[in-house]
Amino acid sequence: MWENMTYENILNDMLERIPNDIDKRPGSIIYDALAPAAYKLAEMYFQLRNYVDLFFADTAVGEFLERRTAELGVIRRQATKAIRKIVTTGPVDIGTRWGLEDTTYVIIEKVTDTEYKAECEQLGSIGNAYSGTLDNIDNISGVTAELIDILIPGEDEETDESLRQRYFESLVSQAYGGNIVDYKEKVSALSGVGGVKVEPVWNGGGTVKLIIIDSEYNKPSDTLINEIQTAVDPVQKQGKGYGIAPIGHVVTVVGVNEVEINVEPEITLQTGYTWDDVKPTVEAAINDYFKELRSEWAESNSLVIRISQIEVRILDIAGIVDVQNTKLNGQQQNIELGPYEIPVLGEVMPA
Prior knowledge:
alpha+beta, 4 domains, three-stranded mixed beta sheet
């Protein structure tokens, strides 16, 4: 709209409006008087163009995008803290603190004398990143601790693109009173949930099954499943409307099923390389591919593990000259999973 309103164009337009019998050359009085005004006008047009972009949902960012999406009740999801399992060699008190790398954890609940739930003190997915022996911040004598399972994954603050996508989806499909879209929106917004599929009337009228994946795109822990069950439709008061579910809906929350995929690639190595040299990188590449697939689970009818995709990733690894004839679970063919299944890597065994 204002692409031509540059400093040069504005200044030239001003000078053209000055009579030709007046000196308009650079350095003249009139030129030096008009140049700063032209500069400020060009700056104003540039800012105005940005303000227009901030007004519309497809180009708005940050606070302006939040204000636009909030008009339809679509609110940016805030960062959350990870809940982890800590195993100790002896009893410790609630509230004691432990550290690992650049994260710290506080004990919030006792499970047994040597098992505890701990909350990461840092917001976001960094709370999911580490496992191993913890540093004893509170100097508890005679006790060591290990950080192991992720019970409820921590999540980073929702990105602009994710918020924008949810906003546009809300314009297309309206959530209402316990319909499928309503369940998807409300359950996906709960802490630790990365996606959900809804199976209505799965066990007769009024029954709903929710199949969830955690925010790290893994099978959810029992702790997370129980928390979502309580938030949606508490077991003790099922169907009575004490959670997100409407009165009369009996909801069952379960996790996705994991399917182990063993990979047997026929690999040609570069001279000087051994299988042990490339194995960790090959496993990491396949795991990354599987995680990409799992991130698409909620919006897919079924996931397909494709041999071609695995071979492309393996071929890109340093030290590998060629890869062919790859088998998945003993068969040289792609594997299509069921609607409630996700792939996890089993063994990688070169043919």
